[in-house]
Design a protein that fits this description.
By secondary structure, the chain is an alpha+beta fold. Helices cover 25% and strands 22% of the residues.
Amino acid sequence: MSPMLRQIKTKFDEALASGAITFTNTTTSRISSEGVEFQIRLAPALVAKPASTLLSAATPSQLPKPNPFLPHDQKLFVSTIHGTHNLLLNKFCIVRDHILLTTREFQNQYNPLNVEDFTAILEIMKEMPDTMTFFNCGDKSGASVLHKHVQIIPVDKAGVPMNDLFSLLEITIPQGNPFVVPTLPFAHAAAFLPLSLSAVSANPIDISIHSSLITSLYRSALLESFRNAGFDYTPFINPPDPTVELPNPLPPSYNLVLTTRWMLIVPRRMEMWNGISVNSVGFAGMVFLKKQEDFEQVQQKGMMNLLKELTFPRHLESP
């Protein structure tokens, strides 16, 4: 066990004992949909999670003020990463050791990730390779806090359910270029990382170089994902001031999933379907539901069909 993971586990146990975090065990089921074994977790604790503080474009003047990350709760604080980010426990979690990586100074959640973000992410995933990072960007993405943050959760030995689709493509698709997954029936862009994170050394220079490569690949995939959805994201790729509380106009929403081998970016059309909210983990093949009725709806609808409802049709075909 790495020192960072040991520190997170110790802090998690302390926070749980003090009541600083809300955690509940979940019941897990699997639903097969178009070649993916989706992992469905029933999590009643989600009912207690506060509503989103992000705003739609219709109400830019009514910006809510609560910011749970500035200042952060010391009982949730794990460490500082590179002087640019704080590593915090997620207050409302249904997975043990669920952590948040937040910018130390305010930046808004609509901003694209930058090289500092990816440097911090890479350092964490190097120490904890059995994890998945995700970024909910925008009011239709499932994001709940306006302060810029990514989330990192452990994955079991079976890995991320979407891995199966990517494993089939890894032989034929070159690393370092965006592509379309043939079997995903909605607009998106994916990419294999230039070098698997497990192969990157802990040398700060190597981490810096690889972080720059991943940042560049992410930006290319982000533009390509929206092109696949029929939109031009170029006006939003370089925000003039990332510290403004709410950009005007609001950039469109999307989800990012990042593993040690690949990334997936999905533009979002809606946050929820029939009251079921889906964030980035849904596009990794994992869905967290609040009620048994939600599970029954998902069974009847089919997970891939549900994801299609929340996204845009594909405008580009796979190579």
